[in-house]
Write a structure and sequence with these properties.
The structure holds two protein chains of two kinds. By secondary structure, chain A is an alpha+beta fold. A nine-stranded antiparallel beta sheet of chain A has the order 4-3-2-1-9-8-7-6-5. Chain A is elongated and about 80 Å long. The N and C termini of chain A lie far apart (about 120 Å). In chain B, a hairpin with a 2-residue loop joins strand 1 and strand 2. Chain B starts with 6 loop residues before the first helix and ends in a 16-residue tail after the last helix. The chains are: A alpha+beta, B mainly alpha. Chains A and B meet through strand 4, helix 4, strand 12, strand 13 and strand 14 of A and helix 5, strand 3 and helix 6 of B. Strand 14 of chain A pairs parallel with strand 3 of chain B, so a sheet runs across the interface.
Chain lengths: ~350, ~180
């Protein structure tokens, strides 16, 4: 008679364990791996954000070289860079000595401090991950890799470990070749200025929020301008406006590369294109100036397109190919124009 | 019965009726002059039947054969009225027309003059086309769009000094180097 209550008690305990065990295990599992870490793989995005803030808020000076490789050559430049908080970034080109004030979020400023919106676009198109530590220009650095969807490396960043700016930045094409490098060869970073107010407020003050400049698109469409909202390679339109000079400016970027498209109304006067050489692509004539193929001009459908790219060669070529390339009006077009004029002369209703 | 006279020829041709022929034959038995005249008429007719038909002149034969060829020239027509009636440009034959209208298909007949005329037509056509094309080419003029050269230095400056995703703030450009 004693065995029955004991066995009954064990059975009740096991049944309760089966009923309550599943959810309890699930709860323990969810507590073991925080959901935020699982969903967010951009572990290096905060480092880029901090470097962008430092590029604007920290004082530093140094020498930076920039090299771009293209399909038929390369170009290099040496710059003396000085940033003073509250004053801005000054870039002096060597050996020409040309000095300009540049925003650190622009190509002239080395894209060392991209806006928050651009970093969001970068994270949308790529995976931004921490890649350990290293050294650049004699300073300790933290590495950030930017990976494509297929896992190949698209860019590498060396970020100053002492809360400084980006020390070195490399872009790679889809075949793993370095196509763009901007790196300090020597750098002096000033001590951080005493923070005013709370730390997050100071960080926010040094970060350019940024945004889109697409408000003129409906009016441009109504005026007959035709352009795509995106280009191959994840290049998204971030700016479209008509300049006072009459041309239309279009800016595309995927968070890493930048492609600018300028459209003018008219026919290209090829005889006055000096220092440019013609190249045939898919039956169309394209004019190229620089040895790396990042500057191109062509005519299409009564418009002249000028493209400046800061991107891998394959991406720049794909962007150029995706824009309009209508055949140049030939003899038949001229004869047709003459026929329409003659008909207009004899047409009494015109 | 008197002599046969004009009935000699009718008798030789067999044109007298039965009664007249009997009376004529009865007269011949007793009239030598009439019998001699009948013999003479019969001899003459016999000789005429033995003669050949008249020969066709050679040039007339060739002219008739040439008329049978397609597209060949027709002999001049004799028109009784100065203004012939036409319908849609084609002459209408009238009851007084001497020759029917020339509606035969044009053929290959024709020598050097026809070939030369054809070459003339081609030359005139080519010249007309050249004049028309030249006129359209000149009237068409050059491309009405203005000829432009991109201000590449200004564009490069804008490219380098525009902050991607920097918002709608107008960038400030430094002077062109």
């Amino acid at each position: 008679m004693i065995r029955l209550p004991v066995s009954l008690f064990l059975a009740v305990v096991m049944l309760l364990g089966l009923v309550t065990g599943g959810p309890a295990h699930a709860a323990r599992s969810s507590q073991a791996v925080p959901p935020d870490d699982v969903e967010s793989e951009d572990t290096g995005l905060d480092l880029l954000r901090e470097a962008a803030i430092a590029g604007r808020s920290r004082g530093y000076s140094g020498t930076r070289y920039v090299t771009v490789w293209g399909t038929s050559g390369s170009t290099s430049a040496v710059q003396e860079v000085r940033n003073a908080p509250g004053v801005g970034l000054t870039v002096r080109a060597e050996p020409s000595g040309h000095t300009q004030n540049a925003d650190p979020g622009t190509l002239a400023g080395g894209l060392s401090s991209p806006s928050g919106t651009m970093l969001e676009v970068l994270a949308r198109n790529y995976r931004v991950v921490e890649a350990g530590e290293g050294r650049a220009c004699g300073r300790a650095a933290r590495l950030v890799n930017v990976l494509r969807a297929d896992g190949t490396l698209a860019a590498r960043y060396w970020i100053d470990r002492a809360a400084g700016p980006v020390l070195r930045r490399e872009l790679l094409d889809t075949r793993g070749r370095i196509v763009h490098t901007a790196a300090f060869v020597d750098l002096t970073v000033q001590p951080p200025a005493p923070a005013r107010g709370t730390a997050p407020a100071a960080a926010t003050a040094g970060m350019a929020t940024g945004g889109l400049d697409l408000g003129q698109i409906p009016r441009l469409r109504a005026d007959g301008w035709r352009f795509p909202l995106a280009l191959p390679g994840g290049l998204e339109l971030f700016s479209a406006h008509r300049a006072p000079a009459g041309h239309v400016y279009l800016g595309y970027s995927d968070g890493l590369s930048v492609v600018s498209v300028f459209i003018q109304h008219g026919a290209l006067d090829e005889e006055r294109l000096r220092d440019w050489h013609a190249e045939r692509r898919n039956g169309h004539t394209i004019w190229i100036r620089d040895p790396v193929g990042q500057e191109t001009i062509w005519a299409s459908g009564g418009h002249v397109y000028t493209v400046f790219a800061d991107a891998p060669a394959d991406m720049a070529d794909a962007a150029v190919a995706a824009l309009p390339h209508e055949p140049v009006p030939d003899l038949w077009a001229r004869l047709g124009r003459g026929a329409s004029r003659v008909l207009s002369w004899v047409n009494p209703f015109e | 019965m008197s002599h046969l006279g004009e009935r000699v020829s009718a008798l030789v041709d067999g044109e007298l009726n039965h009664h007249e022929r009997d009376r004529a034959l009865a007269h011949l038995t007793s009239c030598a002059p009439c019998r001699a005249e009948v013999d003479a008429v019969r001899a003459l007719k016999s000789r005429l039947r033995s003669l050949d038909g008249p020969a066709m002149p050679t040039d007339l034969t060739m002219s008739l054969l040439r008329m049978s060829e397609p597209g060949g020239p027709l002999p001049p027509r004799e028109r009784p009225f100065p203004a012939p009636r036409t319908f849609a440009g084609a002459p209408i034959p009238s009851m007084h027309s001497v020759a029917p209208p020339d509606n035969r298909p044009r053929g290959r007949a024709g020598g050097r003059p026809r070939r030369a005329r054809r070459a003339g037509y081609v030359a005139v056509g080519v010249a007309s086309a050249a004049v028309a094309i030249g006129t359209l080419f000149v009237v068409g003029g050059t491309d009405p769009n203005p000829r432009v050269v991109p201000p590449v230095d200004m564009f490069a400056n804008q490219h380098r000094n525009t902050a991607p995703y920097g918002g709608s703030a107008t960038p400030t450009f430094s002077p062109t180097p």
